[in-house]
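User: For my dataset I need records formatted as: sequence, then structure tokens, nothing else. Please produce one.
Assistant:
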Amino acid sequence: MMIKMMLACCKVYISESRNKCALDLIEQAAKLYPEAVIVNKFKDEVYNRVGYTLVSYVSQNPLRDVYPLPKAVFTMVKAALEATNLELHCGTHPRLGVVDHICFHPLAQASLEQVAGLATSVASDIGHKLQVPTFLYGAAHEQGRSLDSIRRQLGYFKPNSEGINWAGGWAGGPKSGSLPLQPDAGPVQVVQSAGVVVVGATGWVDNYNVPVYSSNLATVRKISKKVSGRGGGLESVQAMALAHGDDLIEVACNLLNPQRIGADQVQLEVERLARMEGLAVGQGYFTDFSQEIIIDRYLKGEQFDS
């Protein structure tokens, strides 16, 4: 049980939520490694994005090729690339690729160093075996660079089409195949149908979205900037404004240190800033379970409801 309680969590974000056949193929691929359990699936059809949370064990003596988690993640990535064409994508959530983001987190008694090893192993396989440019961040990167710094350099926060949607190929530009940043694994040229992948390892991050009842994206962007640590707001909080249907925009937040700055503080700050703009705010929500629930679901063998 001591070994089993050294757990790694991996969150895999894929730029697709409307194609059931593609999602079925991705999920079937993960089932080839039953010891890596998909404990949650969060699908958002407006964003056209799905997030899977997988959990499995690690040990004190890492033999990466025997670990089920990186193998399951790699097979999901391979299936996603085969079943999804980024050039046909359209949604209101930014993305850099078919498999937009993969992040590993230690759970229970596992260490950040252990999961960083899993992240670098997966990134190497994606880059070299699947020939997709792959970037590392956090503990998986030698200099510990941040996820948002990679995204900024690759154009993640700038829509590549008119209006509020990201559409038709890699976010760096509809016709551009070159990269402004050297990948850590894989080729330096981007295939438009696949895009790029970012893989990292960090401590636990909570994702918390707060709905603001407005169609004024510029105003809600101003609110999200004031909420974020980068904009002088809440330390260890990243935030961006994303359209989420008619007259609704979400302040989508990454809580990088939720023990210090949690969802309650974010909710109150969004409400305060929105009141100043004369806007109403709904109750925010998490896009995943807590660490405790994730561990409990894994130990009980509970998987997501399809």
